[in-house]
Amino acid sequence: MMTRHRFIFGLGCLILLCGQAVSHDPRYRTPIRIPDIPGYKTLKCDFHTHTVFSDGAVWPDIRSEEAWREGLDAVAITEHIEYQPHKEDLPTNHERSFEIAKPHGDRLDVIVIKGSEVTRDMPPGHLNAVFLEQAGPLDTEPWSQALEEAHSQGAFIFWNHPGWDGQQSDGVARWYPEHTDLVEKGQLRGIEVINAREYYPEAHRWCLEKNLTILANSDIHWPLNLDYDVRQGDKRPVTLVFAEERSAEGIKKALFARRTAAYAAGMLIGKEEFLGPIFEASVEVLNSSVELRGTRPSFVRIHNHSEIDFELTGASSFVEISAPDELVLRGESTVLLQIRSTSRERSGSKSFRLGYSVDNLKLTPDRTLSIAFPIEVTFVPEPEE
Amino acid sequence: MMTRHRFIFGLGCLILLCGQAVSHDPRYRTPIRIPDIPGYKTLKCDFHTHTVFSDGAVWPDIRSEEAWREGLDAVAITEHIEYQPHKEDLPTNHERSFEIAKPHGDRLDVIVIKGSEVTRDMPPGHLNAVFLEQAGPLDTEPWSQALEEAHSQGAFIFWNHPGWDGQQSDGVARWYPEHTDLVEKGQLRGIEVINAREYYPEAHRWCLEKNLTILANSDIHWPLNLDYDVRQGDKRPVTLVFAEERSAEGIKKALFARRTAAYAAGMLIGKEEFLGPIFEASVEVLNSSVELRGTRPSFVRIHNHSEIDFELTGASSFVEISAPDELVLRGESTVLLQIRSTSRERSGSKSFRLGYSVDNLKLTPDRTLSIAFPIEVTFVPEPEE
Amino acid sequence: MMTRHRFIFGLGCLILLCGQAVSHDPRYRTPIRIPDIPGYKTLKCDFHTHTVFSDGAVWPDIRSEEAWREGLDAVAITEHIEYQPHKEDLPTNHERSFEIAKPHGDRLDVIVIKGSEVTRDMPPGHLNAVFLEQAGPLDTEPWSQALEEAHSQGAFIFWNHPGWDGQQSDGVARWYPEHTDLVEKGQLRGIEVINAREYYPEAHRWCLEKNLTILANSDIHWPLNLDYDVRQGDKRPVTLVFAEERSAEGIKKALFARRTAAYAAGMLIGKEEFLGPIFEASVEVLNSSVELRGTRPSFVRIHNHSEIDFELTGASSFVEISAPDELVLRGESTVLLQIRSTSRERSGSKSFRLGYSVDNLKLTPDRTLSIAFPIEVTFVPEPEE
Amino acid sequence: MMTRHRFIFGLGCLILLCGQAVSHDPRYRTPIRIPDIPGYKTLKCDFHTHTVFSDGAVWPDIRSEEAWREGLDAVAITEHIEYQPHKEDLPTNHERSFEIAKPHGDRLDVIVIKGSEVTRDMPPGHLNAVFLEQAGPLDTEPWSQALEEAHSQGAFIFWNHPGWDGQQSDGVARWYPEHTDLVEKGQLRGIEVINAREYYPEAHRWCLEKNLTILANSDIHWPLNLDYDVRQGDKRPVTLVFAEERSAEGIKKALFARRTAAYAAGMLIGKEEFLGPIFEASVEVLNSSVELRGTRPSFVRIHNHSEIDFELTGASSFVEISAPDELVLRGESTVLLQIRSTSRERSGSKSFRLGYSVDNLKLTPDRTLSIAFPIEVTFVPEPEE
């Protein structure tokens, strides 16, 4: 009977008691498949999360567990300093959520980063300070003093959701003199170009113009699957960090050096020096030489090792050959790129560079990454049937 | 630009405002498709959950939200009275998690039930009291007094995970004189035949012998998707309650009247008076008359309106016809049941009752539900080719 | 050992015996969940398919089997008359594919319709004749005579993929005098507004202006899962036919009476007299009365019984309440529609009709279905905290 | 309008041009993730398929296309010589299906192999000959002569579905003197240990005893998604071939050298010299040193690069530590293997080899692969709280 019932309900489980840690079903981590690039590891990070210690809904160790499960390398715990709606049940303690999340992360090899969200009216709005030593000293009246304190601890400070309609009713991000001042003092170093499901093109532009770090964070409050529909494959946004080493120090250094990209909703946002190499490291042309007989199609087979579906559009056009104007390089799959000669009688050989724009790799709000596949074609004439 | 960025990231969202409730992405409820039966509504309930107010990991409103999303009708919040590992951060308040979960449930039309887990050594082990007025008075030394108190409040009391290896190292449930005593006093009314992923056949037998209510509960501590792999379609166990009306009162009355079944891992456990009608209400034979020409196959088409995959085995055998020995009636699908004549020359008409055992509808630990499809066959002889 | 290996590999199977029909794994039909409307059954039909008997790649019975599996009610087999690329292996026989597909459909209760594709240069291009008696007589030189013949057999004739880039290099459908002539003679009765993955807005307009029947067909040549990515939930387009009865005759009558809509890629295209009732029959408002306390949100819960994700946009705006501007009513789910009062002090009761446009229910190329939810609101003022 | 409608229906497509090859939606290949082993490439092959040219239901090029899409390296086309149920429509031509399938495979870089199924009563039953020069000469009365002919062409001959209930009504494979004779003449070289969904343990034993090649083939007749439920992730069985090079010659040589394994329903069947290296190449222990503080758990993180879910059972037991008795190493995921000290006071360091049996890697019908993880443990005593 024992064997029978265990078999029916699969690999066991359960819970336990008094003073003991909880044991569980098998726990799995699913990697985020985006490759490293030459010189850097591509780390997947979320620098903006909440727990019950401010207005979130989970115990802090859950943020470490979720990060591990989803293939993240690092997560920052960033409670609101000023907004403590649970404080009557759970008295304010600004250091506590990190204290709880950190050892759980350590056991799973997830890097847990101490942070806080300085939560003020606009300007300057909400700002996250990550890589703090102590969060408590930020609990001070003038916001400038709170940021000063974070800065003096060596924290990396960025502006959260600048177009959030809680502070900008039309959803448009606006730059204030206060932000200029913070940048000049070296206190404001980055902006959330993506927060949860919102993209702020203005913020994207400011990052490029003012030399600030691009970030994409979840700002998650509920358990992950209630904010992201994991049953349907939905995922939180992450900041890709291009780090010399997989460590807290490596991440911090990369943030200050602006070696990041945003990854959200199947889209990458970042500078060409990072997005280009990601595309290069992801995509492999399996055969770049094709023979074209008459007008019959031949195929260039292209494998995409990453999980990103690269959306190619705007094929370059040639007199001699036709190629699809649009093509999706589906993640972890090989696709056929179909080439034909435009004439039955053509003969000889020729090289082409078949260019495309990658629509979901965004360099600026208005420009996407351009790529090209080198193709060698041998034409074999085929007489009319 | 606004239209563009909204379009890219889909239907909007967003997040708090100081002092305001949080607003979110669209929130969806997926029904559990198990039909009502004659005379009763089939309510889906979980009578055993934890939050940060004992050793769980979510704020209490999350339990109401999860219940709504997953198609549950009711959820009980049942913190440990005696086990309060978060109390240094979150001082003990036995009434508080229900106070928080209840209004969230009300807004979503989920019935939230006040309960507590009396958490003692074996015997009597852990017992849940649900439909409490006040949980605080259960915080008293002798367990008999705690259960007395719950009983005096009119609570329904059941024994949790009787074979749990935290209290029975071999995983086998054992009945103690203390349990006999509780049953005799009318205090112990039910047992978890299923807790999380474990099934206790001994407990199943006791429910039948001692006339106790069958329960299946999640005993969930973490956010749902961390304990159940929702990405892969995994689900928590639920107690099906056959209630005269969809209300707290209707559920309480049904529990005392033992009108329940356990639903876990695609299996139903309960009495024939409930499992029979569920099968009847779920399964529709679309054509019960078939013509058999020679030995060529014909099909009885059977539609299953429920989400349960009914696993039929052990077909009754007949001289005149053959039918598949095994067949799965996949949920929300129509299946072909293939019938053939055993002889090319047979003619005439005949009625059959094609019986099967439904392997995943368990009446006792050793017996499953028997069903039969009535089929009218007309035989048309077909000469040798 | 026997039991062991059967268990491992699941519910058995297998394959033929010389001269015998093949037996298989359990075969399942998944319904297309779109409800009937008052007065009519909503039948799901594909009027354009090919097999090895013209330039398709499957034996004809496969088209019946695929139709049954996917929840279709009817499928027409419509080989090219003039294009017979397999004829050196498989000599032309215009009646044969229907002869093979029909008995397989009969056994599964799928209605199989005899048709042919008259395959000519533009004008008039390719036209399907369905509900033919005999396909052979259409194999005649002047296209006008082929259509005359089909018409004399009582067939329903429609124009296929009018903007297909094999005949219109810019993908734009063009109307020729020949088509006017065919309409005037009563021979041309409908147009494919959707063929496979293409939508022709010009054709949509012509159906409305010239009183022609709207069709959406697959024009499938390969096995279904090679043309539609079923692993990812991709589906073929179908014509919804609003029929008085589920029969070949019922379908034919409805086609001539223009009682159809196109269903493709999650979108419905048709007249308001059909799309309105489909929305009505699909969507149920579970609670239309809400109480609004201060500016806290309340929820109208809306259940969608159909499989279509209705995409609502453009909420009507009111002084007293705010509602989401966009909302997807996900198929077979309940969604929360969140309402708030715009003022904390408001009191009293009021009725609203909250209107939306359903973006994926298209009445014309430029206009979508408008709907409204009646909502009763009771305002409860809430003093400043 | 054009942009609008293209956008709605995604990346365009479409179909035929008179006399021209058909063009399609993007076509994708999903790799089968099983790694190469030292010295050999792991090729995925199906040596048993049918088309309309015997009793199958697809045009032959579809078998090449399906093979490419599913990540196969090679497919053999093996029509029945003697069973030609379509011959009245499609006159018998034993060479033709290979002629059609081969160039389609060439364009996709799928290796298409010429074969035939010699289809006789038992004994000897059905046998496949692959790597034929000409199939026609096998169409001769005495089966011994047909096999002689195949052998003289250098073909590799194997016995199909030896326990198939069309020839063995109890599903048990039986060995006849005729098979001994064929083995002695060097004509019979392998057996299908798996055909479609059936596993024949007797055949598995014979392969080991008589030194024959293990094969697993689909014997597919219908389009793949009608025989395998691809919507649910179901897959055909394949023979893994360990080849020195990815070529027809490399495969043929490996077959004769018995370098194969069967892969079906998530299970591998083969010799330890192949399954051991597959496990080794798939599984990576990310941290083999753990520190155990008191009785608190620590984790060994194990990543599985393959797609196979390795099912570990029967953990070796130790006095000092406890580990889970069962654990599934889910494909393309990292799992936590939880270790605890059995005593709070233990100190010092010790090495363990934590052994498991891999239940779904079968060396014989009765024995599975044994593996062990080397683990270094440092014990840190923790005083009673």
- Residue fraction in strands of chain A: 25-35%
Assembly status: homotetramer
Shape of chain A: elongated
Could you tell me the radius of gyration of chain A in angstroms?
25 Å
Parts with pLDDT < 50 across at least 5 consecutive residues of chain A: 1-23
Give the distance, in angstroms, between the N- and C-terminal Cα atoms of chain A: 73 Å
Specify the helix fraction band of chain A: 10-25%
Q: What is the ordering of alpha helices and beta strands of chain A?
A: HEEHEHEEHEHEEHEHEHEEHEEEEEEEEE
Strand tally of chain A: 21
Largest interface: A-B, 69 and 70 residues
Quick check: average pLDDT of chain A?
92
Going by helix content, strand content and strand pairing, the class of chain A is alpha/beta
Number of helices of chain A: 9
Largest sheet of chain A: 16 strands, mixed
Strand and helix layout:
Four copies of one chain form a homotetramer.
Chain A: H1 2-8, E1 28-29, E2 41-46, H2 60-69, E3 74-80, H3 96-108, E4 111-119, E5 126-130, H4 143-152, E6 156-159, H5 177-184, E7 190-195, E8 198-199, H6 201-210, E9 213-217, H7 224-227, E10 238-243, H8 248-256, E11 260-264, E12 267-270, H9 272-282, E13 283-285, E14 289-293, E15 298-304, E16 310-313, E17 321-322, E18 327-329, E19 333-341, E20 348-364, E21 367-380
Parallel strand pairs in A: 2-3, 3-4, 6-7, 7-9, 12-20, 14-21
Antiparallel strand pairs in A: 2-10, 4-5, 5-6, 7-8, 10-11, 11-12, 13-15, 15-19, 16-18, 16-20, 17-19, 20-21
